[in-house]
Amino acid sequence: MRSGPFSRAHSSGTILLVDDNKDGVIARRSLLEELGYQVVSACCGQDALQNIEQQKFDLVITDFKMSPINGLELIASLRERDFKSPIILLTGFAESLGLRPDETGADVVIQKSSNEVATLLRHTRRLLPPPAKRPARSEDSPNNDPRRRNTG
Fold it and tell me: 79 vs 115, which has greater pLDDT?
């Protein structure tokens, strides 16, 4: 495994989600955002590299089969650029191609399957603990609504 432990104080919880399948992006994005992460999506490896140049990401989750840059090429490019944050590789081909973290540059390789969501969430939380929930601002509280105050 490439990564060391990541502390909650160190991470802001920003994830780059790379996949050319719009439905997959929507589904994974909503799950991750529900946990409190900020998610930026890219539809291909080239878009991902542009995003990396413009913003800091605490975790990258990428699909394997994309064009013109596949997930392995994206990971190799990120590692060449000295990208230190953890990377999760999602693929339907992990078992058939024998893709493992030590061969791909990813910290975790997840086989797409019926267990994919649970596995993705478990590894995401391990590599990047969810940001602490922000308490609701007091002025947003219904108890502070002047229309609801008892005046008499």
Answer: 79
Between the CA of residue 118 and those of 12, 42, 43, what are the distances in Å? 22, 22, 23
DSSP string, the chain: -------TTT---EEEEE-S-HHHHHHHHHHHHHTT-EEEEESSHHHHHHHHHHS--SEEEEESS-SSS-HHHHHHHHHHTT--S-EEEEES-HHHHT--HHHHS-SEEEE-STTHHHHHHHHHHHHSPPPPPPPPPGGGSGGG-GGG----
Task: Convert the pLDDT of each residue in 91-144 to its tens digit.
Answer: 887 666 666 777 788 999 998 888 889 999 999 999 998 887 654 454 444 555
For the chain, the structural domain boundaries read 14-130
Query: Is the pTM higher than 0.85?
Result: no
What CATH number is given for 14-130 in this structure? 3.40.50.2300
